[in-house]
Design a protein that fits this description.
Elements lengths: L6 E2 L4 E3 L4 E3 L7 E3 L14 E5 L3 H8 L4 E4 L5 E3 L2 E7 L7 E7 L2 E5 L21 E6 L11 H17 L3 E5 L5 H8 L7 E3 L1 H10 L9 E2 L6 H4 L3 E4 L15 E6 L6 H6 L4 E3 L7 H11 L3 E7 L1 H10 L3 E4 L7 H9 L5
Parallel strand pairs: 3-4, 4-5, 5-6, 10-11, 11-18, 12-15, 12-16, 13-14, 13-15, 16-17, 18-19
Antiparallel strand pairs: 1-2, 2-3, 7-8, 8-9, 9-10
Enzyme class: hydrolase
Keywords: Exonuclease, Hydrolase, Ligase, Nuclease
GO molecular function: exonuclease activity; ligase activity
């Protein structure tokens, strides 16, 4: 039986012909990394190959690592296997990995979204034979509202809270979501304050993207300074001692999970804004169709439900288990820097 070009192993997705892993979750010799979230970029690999925009991100998170940066569409060959990275649109520096050997082409998406957020390089559709897709939001219930409408509502919410003399606290993952929100907050309303985890990551990304001015919250920051303004914080800050001095405040979370009211209640959030860095149901389906792939491998999220639906459409679809966690992994990226 022919060995697949990419295999799912206990260390991660492995290209045996090249001796290369894609986003491995255990230490390996050579790893191609799609993006900087904690569930896709782990510490301990001997060599990291990634898009050059992702290098400062993973270096900030992981410390002193041996990394090589490549450009979009730049081909590199390992043991006669041809690799290239292409925009995934998920967060800044996020990639899909194209793998080609003897005319056979596989695409590993990592995490991706098809809506252009204005800060990430927009998603690029690539033709392939086999497509490995995430399914974080692989249910028909997930249907995203256009970004500009959500951001307009966020600024209106902030203004309303200001008129009521309250501080607005907006939760978003420190890498990706926070910068997407920051880019479009209306500074005519007031000052944007930040939690240390978000401030530190944003400073890493400022050379790549123009962001509004932010003010880091310190021990010296007073409640009076915060009133009427907005605070960007990671989800892990909710309920912490850090947040207590901001009373009176109103909380909101920006996440795809805010589609469900129950998610907002469980997290004790006052307001939910549906804004995700992943594809919705239709985005997943349209992406798959555009690749022309016949074989689809579904990973983390609603993979069983989604793969079953794909089989009903006529695709050769199956699931594979990974240690990728979708938005949960992004939360872990935030949690690791909560006290900074």
């Amino acid at each position: 039986m022919k060995t697949p070009l990419l295999q799912f192993t206990d260390k991660g997705i492995y290209c045996e012909k090249a001796g290369v892993y894609l986003d491995p979750w255990k230490p390996v010799e050579k790893a191609i990394i799609t993006h900087g979230h904690a569930d896709h970029s782990r510490w301990g690999h001997k060599q990291y190959i990634t898009h050059h925009r992702n290098i400062p991100i993973i270096s900030h998170r992981l410390g002193d690592i041996h990394s090589t940066g490549v450009a979009w569409g730049e081909s590199f060959t390992v043991n006669n296997v041809k690799f290239s990275l292409h925009p995934a649109g998920h967060i800044i520096g996020s990639s899909q990995v194209r793998v080609e050997h003897k005319g056979e082409v596989w695409i590993f998406t990592g995490d991706y979204k098809t809506e252009d957020d204005g800060i990430s390089t927009p998603y690029e559709s690539i033709k392939c034979d086999t497509f490995i897709t995430e399914c974080t939001f692989g249910l028909p219930a997930f249907k995203w509202i256009p970004q500009n409408e959500v951001l307009r509502d966020i600024n209106a919410w902030w203004k309303e809270n200001q008129n009521e003399g309250k501080t607005s606290i907006l939760f978003g993952y420190s890498l990706g979501k926070a910068q997407r929100l920051l880019k479009y907050l209306d500074t005519d309303i007031g000052t944007i304050y930040t939690h240390g985890a978000i401030e530190n990551m944003t400073e890493v990304l400022r050379p790549l993207v123009s962001f509004p001015k932010t003010t880091l919250i310190t021990k010296e920051t007073s409640k009076k300074e915060l009133l009427g303004n907005i605070v960007l914080a990671p989800p892990s800050a909710h309920g912490s001692t850090w947040i207590r001095k901001m009373v009176p405040y109103v909380t909101a979370s920006a996440s795809g999970w805010m589609t469900f009211r129950g998610a907002r209640r469980r997290r004790a959030i006052d307001k939910g804004f549906v804004l995700s860095d992943h594809c919705d149901w239709q985005g997943l389906l349209s992406s798959i169709e555009a690749t022309g792939a016949e074989k689809i491998i579904c990973t983390h999220g609603y993979s069983d439900i989604f793969s079953k639906y794909l089989r009903e459409l006529g695709y050769d679809a199956r699931t594979e288990a990974t240690q990728y966690e979708g938005e949960q992994g992004e939360m872990e990226s935030s949690k690791s820097n909560t006290d900074s």
